[in-house]
Structure formats: C-alpha cells, structure tokens
From TrEMBL:
Subunit composition and interactions: Part of the cohesin complex which is composed of a heterodimer between a SMC1 protein (SMC1A or SMC1B) and SMC3, which are attached via their hinge domain, and RAD21 which link them at their heads, and one STAG protein.
Residue span of region Disordered: 13-81, 1053-1147
Role of this protein: Component of cohesin complex, a complex required for the cohesion of sister chromatids after DNA replication. The cohesin complex apparently forms a large proteinaceous ring within which sister chromatids can be trapped. At anaphase, the complex is cleaved and dissociates from chromatin, allowing sister chromatids to segregate.
GO MF annotation terms: chromatin binding
Biased composition (Basic residues): 1073-1085
Keyword terms of this UniProt record: Cell cycle, Cell division, Chromosome, Chromosome partition, Coiled coil, Nucleus
Coiled-coil segments: 257-287
InterPro entries: ARM-type_fold, Cohesin_Scc3/SA, HEAT_SCC3-SA, SCD, STAG
Entry's family note: Belongs to the SCC3 family.
UniProt-recorded name of the protein: Cohesin subunit SA
GO annotation (BP), single: cell division
Pfam families on file: HEAT_SCC3-SA, SCD, STAG
Compartmental location: Nucleus; Chromosome; Chromosome, Centromere
C-alpha cells in the first residue's frame, strides 16, 4: 500500500492570513481513504512564493518573467521564453517537462499557476492583453473576457490558429499536445481538487461564447481537446473499476476461512473512490459538452464546427460504451447536411473510424437506417474530397453489412466509376470490386483456384465485368472503367491468358458461349488493360498529366510490358484471323502492337509470328474500307517500321509491296473512270473510292511521295469541277490525299537543302491545289465544300509569312497571301455554314433517330469551321476587318461559339488594339445598318433589336478591361469612328431633322465609361464639330441619342450638360463652377492632372497638324451600308461638313495619334481664344471673357467609370492583356468601408443570402 502525500507549507506572512495547510494527493493504487483528500480550496488565495533555493522554473517571478501584479515580462530577442505561450510556441522543450514544471508551480501557488494558464489561452487567441492577478481575484470571467476583448487588435484578422506557415502549424500541434499532457499528468490528483478544472472549464466556456472569432475558435479547440483527454481518463477509470470489481468478486467468493476481510474493505474503498472520481469526470465532461459543444457544433465558422465533429468522432471511437449511442450520433448525422464541405468531410471521416470496427455495427444500425440515404447522396457531392470519403464510407457499410444497402443504393455508386475525377472513380472502383468481385463461396473458390484459363475463378469474374460494362451503356469509356478498377482489381485485369482463352477457345459442354456484343466488349476492355499496364498512367481526361514513376512502379511497368508482349505476339495473329471480318473488333485489336516491346521479335526469334501478323494486316487492308480500320493498319505499319528496331527492313518490304499494289489498282481505276466519264458504273466508282481511301489512310502516316499520288487526285478533282458529276466521297478523299502529299513534300524541303527547282515545283503544286479548293467552295455537296474550306484554311496557315521565320528565308517563294476575293469567299462560307438558325438545323435533321447525337456532331463541325477561319484572322492572314462579321454574332450565338469569338477578340487586340477597336465598332455599325434596312430610319429605341445592339456594345466595352491607359488610343478611335458614322448621312428632309444614323450614338454611349476624363473632353470637342447651334437647342425624342451621348462625355466635367427633361436651353456660363470657387486641395490635384495630361498631349508638339487626307475605303466584305441611305446621300464637293475627315488621319504609320491631333487642335484653339480674349478685354466685352475662362476650366467631378455590378462583370469579361488593378488607399479607410460594400470579398458573397450572383450572359 502506498500513500503519496505532498506537503505545501505556507508561513504566517501569507496575505490571506491563513496558516499552513496540508494537501493530500492520492494515487490510483491507493486503497485507504484518508478523509482529507477532497478538501476544497477557496478561489483567490495566492500562494506564498517559494524560497530562493528553489529552481528558477519554479519561481513565479523567474518562471514567467512576471511582475508581482501578474504582468508578463518579455525578454529581449535571443532570451529564454518568458511565458507559457512562448514555451509552447517554440516547442523546444518536451511537453512532459513543460507540464511537470507547471504542476510544480501549481502545487506551490495555484492562483499564480492558473493565471499563467489563463494568459496562455488569452495569448493563444492572438490577444495582446494580459490578465493581472488582481483581475483574476476580483473580477468575474465575463468581465475579464470583456476587458480582453477591448484590448484585442481589431486591425489584425489573423491569430495563431489561422496563420499559415510551418511554425504556426507546429504551434497548433503543440497547443493540443499541451492540453492532453496536462490532463494526463493531473489525472490522479489535481483535476479532482474542484478548483483547477472548474476555473479552466469556466474560462473556456466564457471564451467560447465570445463574439470575437479568435477567442471562440481557440477556446473551442482547447475545450474539445480537454474533453478528449477527460474521455481517456474516464476510460481508464472504467477499466480500473472493472478490474477492482473482479478482484472483489473473486475475494468474496472464496471460502470463509481463506477470505481476507481487510482486503475486501480496501477493495470496497478503492471502488468507492474510483466511482467518485468517475462521477466527477462525468460532471466535467457534461459541463464541456452542454456548455461548449452543443453551442459550437453549429457555430457560424466552419473551422469551429469541424473541430467539434472531429473530436466527437474520437470520443465515440475511444469510449464507445458511453458515447456511441443515438444521443451523440445525431449531432454527426445532422451535420452531414452542413453547407461547408470541410465540415461534411470531418463527419464522414469520423464515421469511417466507427464503421471500420465491425464490432460496433449493432450500435450503428439505427443511425445507418436513418442517415444511409444522405450518405449515399453525398457520393455526388459537389466537392470531390467529400464525394471520395462518402464512397469509402458506403464501401465500409457494404463490407460490414451486405443487407444495409439496397440495389438502388449500389447503382448510385456504380456509375461513378466513369467519373472524370480519378479519386472519385477509384473509390467507386473499390466499391464495385467489393460488391461484385470479392464475395464468393469459399469452397467453390478453392476448387476453382486449381484450374486455369477460362475455368479459373477469374473466368467468371471477367464475364461479370463484361456484363457490367454492357449494362452500363457507356461503351465509349472502357478505359475509364479499367482505370477505376486498376488499383483494386489489378490481378483480374492482368489475367490476359484467361481473356485470350475466352475469345479463342470454344465453350465446353454446358458453358454459355460469349455473344457478339460480349466479345466486342471483352476485346475493348482487354485492349484498355494492355494500355494501362504498358503506359502506367490514367487515360486522357483523368489526372493533370503524366507523373514520374517510382522505381517500383517502373519495374512493374517493364514486367507487365514483357508479359503482355509474350502473350500477344503469339495470340494477336490468331485473334485477327478469327475476327478479321468484324471492323470494330479488328480496329481494337490493331492497337495492341503499339504497346509491344518490339525487341522481343528478334531477341526471342519470333520472326515467324511477325510474318503472321503482317499477313493478317494485309488481309485486313484488302477486306475493309472503314476509315477507322485503315488508320489502325497504317499506324501499326508505322510503329513496326521504326528505325530503332531490326525488324524494320522486313516490315518496310511488306509495306512497299502493299502500297505498290494499291497504287497500281488506283491508277487503273482512275484511268477507267476518266475514260468512261458520265457512263461510269458503281463498280468503277467503288474501285476508285476503295483504293483511294486506303492510300489516303496510309499517306497520313507514311511518306508516299515517290508514288506521286497527287497527279491522279488532281485529275479527279479537275474532272469533278469541269463536269460537276464527281461523287462526293471521291472528291473528299482526293482533297485529303492531295493535302497529305503537299505536306510530305514540304517536310522533305524543310528537312533538306532544297534547290530552286524544288521550290518552284512545290509552289506550282500548292497554287494549283489552292485554286481547286477555292473552286470547290461552290460545290453543291456540303461535305466537299467543308473539306475544301478546312484544307484552304490549313494550307493558308502553313504557307503564310510565318513559314520563313527561324532562319528559313529561303522558303519565301512558298509564301501565299490570300487575295481579297478568296478572303471574301472564305468569310461568306463561314456566314452561310456556321451562323445558321437552329430552326434550319432542326428541319435538316428531321426524322433522324439519333437527332441529339447528330446535332452535337454538327455543332462540333461548325465550331471547327469557325475556329479555322478565326486562326487566319488572329495570325493576320485574313484582314482584321473581316472579323466584324464574326464579332457581331457574339451575343446571338454565345452558347455555341462564345468562347471562340471571345478568344479571337482577345488575340486580335493583342495584335493591334486600334484596328481591333475599329473592327468592333464596324460590327456594331453593320448590325445597325441591317436594323435600319428592316425597320426604316425611324427606329423604336425601346425595341428588343436596339437593346440587343446596346447589350452587345456593353459586352464589347467590358472586354477592354480596367486598364484605361493601355486602351485609351483604341477607345478614342472607336468613338471617332462611331461619331463619323452617326453624322455620315444627313437627313434628306432637311437640316432641321436629325441625321439618319444619329440613333447610333446611343449605342456608342456604352463605351464612354472606358474613356479617360481628359479624353472625354477631346472626344466631346470632336463631337461639337458636327453639331450645329440648332442641334444643341433641340430636346425632342429624336434627339435623345445625341443628348445622352453628350452627357456621357460630360460626366464629371465642367461643360454644359444638355437637359433631357426640360425643353429650354441652359446657358453654358450658368452651369459651370468658376475656378475661384474650387477648394484649394482639389485645385492643386486637378492642376497636377492637367500638367500630366499636357505633357502627354504635347509629346510630339514639334509636329504640325497634317493636312486633310481621306480615310481609306473599307473592303466590301465587311461594311454593308444601307442602300437607301447611299441613294439619298448626295455629297457636296464644294464644301465639307465641319469636323469631318480633314482632322483625322487613318494611318497607323503616322507618328501622331488621333488623340494627339485633337489635343494639338485644342491647344491651338485656346491660343486663338486667348488672342480673342485680349481683344474682347480691350473692347470691354465681359461676357466673352467669362465664357473663355469657363472653357479653360478643368472638370470638377471625377468620372464614375463603372458601377459595382459593372466591375464584377468586368472581372468576368476582361482579357489576359489587362493589368491588375492597384487602387490607391483611401484617406479614411473606415469611412470607405462604410460607404462602399466590398464586392471583391469572397466571404461577403458567400454569406450573402440575397441571391446576388453574376450572370455571365
């Protein structure tokens, strides 16, 4: 029997006035009840400082660097840590030692030790304040927390638990470990003194209810870890109680003579003490659970909710007898519906630890029935991490109880093996493996294990896999299914012996033979397993790319490749022989040789198997005309002809013999077809088409230049153009084969040293072929036109000016630039075949059984056509103004081509910002002209058509981004072109009527926000050149576009703003604020801006304003004017409109931009105004003086560029060439935050329940 007694002496000088006291600490092994071990100690009685001979760590002053008032004293840099927070943060000392030191100090002076602990929690929350000893003694917890809240640094949003970095990650671990070790070391004495735990739990409960997130987060983590430590203590107590009870029962059951009465009494005392301790621990846990967990598991902060759920999972796992019941499980079940993925993830992981233990399933049965549907639905969670863990949990449920999941539940998981997200698919594959491939009769398994091949256990499993693949009806995704099962069912998927036997051998008696669909599915799956083993990485669409294999994975890959090569070198010719009539099966089987280790043919003396393979491939080529099969044969020949292998010569001979035979057959067929002309029968046409398709497929992967296939293909195309009777399939194949021939000739020239004759010959071939393709654009057969268009675009790209880059100037004779006619034809083709109405498409496909599939295929084809033409625009092969006809369809066809048009717009802007801007305004002008043609000059400004043009203009404006400096020239040019267009045609009714295109100014308003303030003045001055005094006085509805546009240019300026609501004019002088009336601060700022602007304007002040030059006329393919306007407009040769072309130079080579010219003219105008001012002053004309002073005034109000909504949409629309915004800091940050909501704060958007969201289009 051992009694541990700790005496703590206090002298009479103690400020509380109490004498010495004795504290008894009982160990668990103690069996005697002293009666004094549970004496209560009153709070607020400070202990006496220890004697000077004590260790420094034990001295309150030295230990914490603490002054007598409890204020922490920090050492300088490089000194020892002076607070408990710093000790734990640094983590240099073992946590056991840190806790032992604190326990020693607690035994000497518990108030000072608890003060250390309280300040530890406060400082771990990031609070700079410190609890003093008098606060601890005289203030309630709520008052202390309120005081600490006032001392919290509001500007800092971070606190130790949220700061990123390895140091703070380690701190979190040390923080949790400290609490666990503290309880573990105090579990035999201190936690039962009814003082330390009461104080700590009370403080943590108060902090967890604080409005300060840092307090709430830190205290909740501390409380949950404290609870976990108490659960361990309770578990130990429960075990000790059971042991004591067994000892007592054993002693009591002894016969009376051998029974030890003293021992029975000691065991009774021990059981009583353990029960009392158990009750106290349960009271503590109840206080934490009801005071903290119940409130914080639904906290507004996801991290806090996650902590609670994570820890309750630990409690249920550690002490399942107490916690694994519905009273606690319900909190986890409810939280499965949490809106944050992080919390849902913690719920699933907590449940996984429970379902892993099959012994706990009876206790989880009710929970499983109640929340099973929710768990299964979470396999489709929008966050992939959550979905993966949900699938794993469902797999554990399946493993523990086969009847827990219904067939519908399982089917919901099955289809996830085809998910594009690999972790989800692999988890679903594990579920599928558990459900279908790993639960069989053990006796039957043992009997089947002795068999091999089709009769082995894997034979039935492979049949089951094929059946699952067919029933899933996703036959194009066999590679995804194999990849999903690869980690869990690799042994089954690599049993190629069994697969080959199932395909080649006849079924035994009583065994059901594989059907045709089953054989096709098995071959497809087998090829996918071969690819997975040989390449050792997921299929395309899964994963971010090929990762570097480990040494073990590399060795496995080599072994698998050798194994599959040995199997299929022998089996493949037999498989091809059996299935050579089936195109689908043959096309799949011919993919296998690309995964061979071809050295085995020579090293293993297996040339006879190579000959057998080449023979079978030749038979396949002769028998099939399907493109997929022929391309597979061509690729196989290409792989076998690799120069690095010794078998190359043998394969090359076989390939040449095959091509010779096909070429001879093709030449004779062409001659027969050309001679018979219109009298050719179906056999002649089939003979030409068959041999041509085979040669085209081989020409794609092999250089067949020496057979000169271009000659006969060109003859066929010319005959088709001249006679117009060529079958479309022959024309398409001839175009494709000619294209391959040209490309192979170019490869030879670029890789060698071509002579001039070679270049001339190739140029002649390319020129003639381009001419043929251009003529084919008018062919009656759509496939021929589409093929010719795609080849034209490809060849124009290949033989463009970029061909000579990279020290290839010698290839300059091969450069072809499309003329205006060809560009117009290409553009017309795009407009006629790409931008078609949906109704037309539906009518063309009416009655088709696979209507949806055909629609998708047709859309894909149209997207390819548009992308091919867009590349010509981007690379400056086709003139940029041609893109206007593309850009104008941006809104109407956004769902189909929006991404292509947007990317084209972005790339063209990078090439030439100004020309791109002119193209954008040109596209709007085209739409406006089309609208005028349909509705007449008097447009309904509220109609959907006008609104559509304005919306398109708004979208175009958003694409300029937020960097106005970078786009100022382009935007100004856009406004100039828009103004010219609006005033281009005067109204034939007279000058008192608005110009015909004046309504276009309303569209132009959408771009005003993209002008800098000083540029708005310049554009406004240019606008005034077109405006007469009569126009400035009009306020009728027909003049509203002019009023709106002018006001958009005057936003933030000091010019006269035309009133829209009143019919009277306002004097320009009465609406301006005099310079004398400005605040000095603003005057200083605007002066600086004017100075900066002036330097920009005058950077070319040595240049003279150029004379009048006419703007070059645009090509006919892009600008379609209203013929009615053109007929009504009679130009006056003697006089020009004010402010028309003479003031603008449309020439990008000029050194002075249009803005510079307008600024120069403004400066000259002001100079002239100054001279007039002197004359007026001498004449006493004061009104003129005032007007001139007001003309020179800077705008007072800054332009509001964009609303908040506009900024958000701009973030969606801006392109890569826009710079990042760096807004200047406000003088009053708090005022700014109150006035302007921060729409860029992701948390604000997430928490907002108003339904605000950005609509893309």
């Amino acid at each position: 029997m051992c009694v541990c007694v700790c005496l703590v002496c206090r002298d009479s000088s103690n400020e509380s006035g109490q004498g010495d006291s004795v504290s008894l600490s009982l160990s668990v092994s103690e069996l005697e009840d002293t009666g004094e071990g549970k004496s209560k100690k009153k709070r607020g009685r400070p202990g006496r400082p220890p004697a000077a001979s004590k260790k420094a760590r034990k001295s309150p002053v030295d230990k914490g660097g603490r002054r007598p008032n409890g204020m922490a004293q920090h050492n300088g840099q490089g000194g020892d840590p002076s607070t408990l927070f710093e000790v734990v943060k640094l983590g240099k000392s073992a946590m056991q030692s840190v806790v032992d030191d604190w326990i020693e100090s607690y035994k000497q002076d518990r108030d000072m030790a608890l003060l250390d602990l309280i300040n530890f929690f406060i400082q771990c929350s990031g609070c700079k304040g410190t609890v003093r000893i008098e606060m601890f003694r005289n203030m309630q917890n709520a008052e202390i927390i309120r005081k600490m809240t006032e001392e919290f640094d509001e500007d800092s949003g971070d606190y130790p638990l949220t700061i990123a970095g390895p140091q703070w990650k380690k701190f979190r671990y040390n923080f949790c470990e400290f609490i666990c070790v503290l309880i573990r070391q105090c579990q035999y004495s201190i936690i039962y003194d009814e003082y330390m735990m009461d104080t700590v739990i009370s403080l943590l409960t108060g902090l967890s209810d604080s409005q300060v997130r840092a307090f709430r987060h830190t205290s909740t983590l501390a409380a949950m870890k404290l609870m976990t430590a108490l659960v361990n203590v309770a578990l130990n107590l429960s075990i000790n109680q059971d042991n004591t009870q067994r000892q007592y029962e054993a002693e009591r059951n002894k016969v009376a003579g051998k029974r030890a009465t003293d021992k029975l009494e000691l065991l009774l005392e021990k059981r009583k003490e353990l029960q009392e301790n158990q009750d106290e621990i349960e009271n503590m846990m109840n206080s934490i659970f009801k005071g903290i967990f119940v409130h914080r598991y639904r906290d507004a902060i996801a991290e806090i909710r996650a902590i609670c759920i994570e820890e309750i999972g630990v409690w249920m796992k550690l002490y399942s007898d107490a916690f694994l019941n519905d009273s606690y499980l319900k909190y986890v079940g409810w939280t499965l519906h949490d809106r944050q993925g992080e919390v849902r993830l913690k719920c699933l992981k907590a449940l996984q630890t429970l379902y892993t233990n099959r012994g706990l399933f009876p206790k989880l049965e009710l929970f499983t029935n109640r929340f099973k549907d929710r768990i299964v639905s979470m396999t489709l969670d929008k966050e992939y991490d959550v979905a993966v863990e949900a699938i794993r949990l469902v797999t554990l449920i399946l493993h523990g109880s086969e009847d827990a999941l219904s067939n519908e539940d399982c089917e919901n998981v099955y289809h996830l093996v085809y998910s594009a997200h690999r972790p989800v698919a692999v988890a679903a594959g594990e579920f599928l493996h558990r459900k279908l491939f790993s639960r069989h009769d053990p006796q039957a398994e043992e009997a089947l294990a002795k068999r091999r091949g089709r009769n082995s256990p894997n034979g039935n499993l492979i049949r089951m896999l094929v059946l699952f693949f067919l029933e899933s009806e996703l036959h194009e995704h066999a590679a995804y299914l194999v990849d999903s099962l690869w980690d869990s069912s690799q042994e089954l998927l690599k049993d190629w012996d069994c697969m080959i036997e199932l395909l080649l051998e006849e079924p035994v008696q009583g065994e059901e033979a594989l059907g045709d669909r089953h054989e096709s599915a098995l071959i497809e799956l087998m090829v996918c397993t071969i690819r997975q083993a040989a390449e050792a990485h997921p299929p395309v669409g899964r994963g971010t790319g090929k990762r570097v294999l480990t040494a073990k994975e590399k060795k496995t890959q080599i072994d698998d490749k050798n194994k599959l090569t040995e199997h299929f070198i022998i089996a493949l010719p037999m498989l091809l022989s059996k299935y050579q009539a089936d195109a689908e099966k043959v096309a799949n089987l011919l993919q296998i040789p690309q995964f061979f280790d071809l050295e085995v043919y020579s090293s293993g003396r297996m040339e006879k198997h190579l000959d057998a393979l080449l023979k079978q491939i030749r038979l396949v080529v002769e028998k099939h005309t399907e493109t997929e099969v022929l391309e597979a044969c061509s690729k196989t020949y290409s792989i076998l002809c690799s120069e690095e292998y010794t078998i190359m010569n043998r394969v090359d001979i076989a390939r040449s013999q095959l091509i010779d035979e096909l070429t001879d057959r093709f030449s004779h067929s062409v001659e027969d077809l050309l001679q018979e002309g219109d009298e050719a029968d179906d056999d002649d046409i089939y003979s030409v088409l068959s041999s041509l398709k085979k040669l085209t497929a081989f020409h794609n992967a092999h250089d067949l230049t020496k057979w000169d296939l271009f000659k006969n293909c060109y003859r066929l195309l010319k005959m088709g153009i001249e006679q117009g009777s060529m079958p479309e399939q022959i024309a398409v194949q001839a175009l494709q084969c000619s294209h391959y021939s040209i490309l192979w000739q170019l490869v030879r020239i670029t890789e060698g040293s071509p002579s001039k004759d070679d270049l001339v010959a190739l140029r002649r071939v390319v020129k003639s072929f381009l001419a043929v393709c251009q003529q084919c654009l008018s062919n009656v057969n759509t496939p021929v036109k589409e093929q010719a268009f795609m080849l034209l675009c490809d060849l124009l790209m290949i033989f463009s000016h970029q061909l000579t880059t990279g020290s290839r100037e010698a290839l300059q004779p091969l450069v072809f630039n499309p003329d205006g006619t060809l560009q117009s034809e290409l553009l017309s083709f795009v407009l006629d075949h790409v931008f078609i109405d949906q109704d037309d498409e539906n009518q063309s496909m009416e009655g088709d059984e696979e209507d949806e599939a055909n629609k998708i295929e047709a859309l894909h084809k149209r997207r390819n056509l548009l992308a091919a033409f867009s590349k010509l625009i981007i690379y400056d092969i086709v003139d940029m103004p041609a893109a206007a006809d593309i850009f104008k369809h941006y809104m109407k066809y956004y769902n189909d081509y929006g991404d292509i048009i947007k990317e084209t717009l972005s790339k063209t802007r990078q090439t030439d910002k100004i020309q791109c801007a002119k193209t954008l305004i040109l596209s709007l002008q085209q739409l406006f002209n089309e609208l005028v043609q349909d509705q007449g000059p008097n447009l309904d400004r509220t109609s959907s058509h006008v609104s559509g043009i304005k919306e398109l203009a708004r979208r175009f404006a958003l694409t300029f981004g937020l960097d106005q400096i970078k786009t100022r020239e382009a935007v100004a040019t856009l406004h100039k072109d828009g103004i010219d267009f609006a005033f281009k045609f005067p109204n034939p009714k007279g000058a008192e009527y608005p110009p015909t295109n004046l309504a276009f100014l309303e569209v132009l308003c959408e771009f005003s926000s993209k002008l800098l303030r000083q540029d708005k003045k310049t554009v406004h001055s240019y606008l005034e050149k077109f405006m007469t005094e009569y126009m400035m006085e009009r306020r009728e509805d027909v003049w509203l576009p002019l009023i709106a546009y002018r006001n958009s240019l005057l936003t933030g300026g000091d010019e006269d703003r035309m009133s829209v609501t009143t019919g009277s004019t306002t004097s320009r002088a009465s609406t301006v604020r005099s310079k004398r009336g400005r605040p000095p601060l603003h005057k200083k700022r605007t002066d600086g801006e004017e100075s900066g602007d002036g330097s920009w304007v005058m950077r070319n002040d040595s240049l003279q304003t150029p004379g009048g030059l006419q703007t070059p006329q645009l090509t006919s393919t892009v600008l379609r004017e209203n013929p009615r306007q053109a007929a009504e407009h009679i130009p006056d040769q003697d006089s020009s409109e004010p402010g028309s072309e003479p003031d603008f130079i449309h020439n990008p080579q000029m050194q002075m931009s249009w803005l510079d010219q307008q600024k120069m003219e403004e400066v000259n105008r002001k100079d002239r105004g100054g001279m007039n001012y002197m004359k007026a002053r001498s004449g006493g004309v004061r009104q003129q003086v005032r007007g001139l002073m007001e003309d020179d005034a800077e705008p007072i109000f800054e332009d509001v560029m964009m609303s908040s909504r506009g900024q958000l949409e701009d973030m969606n629309e801006e392109f890569e060439d826009t710079m990042v915004i760096d807004l200047p800091p406000s003088r009053n940050r708090r005022e700014r935050a109150e006035l302007r909501p921060d729409f860029f704060d992701s948390t604000a958007i997430i928490e907002d329940d108003s339904g605000f969201g950005m609509q893309m289009f």
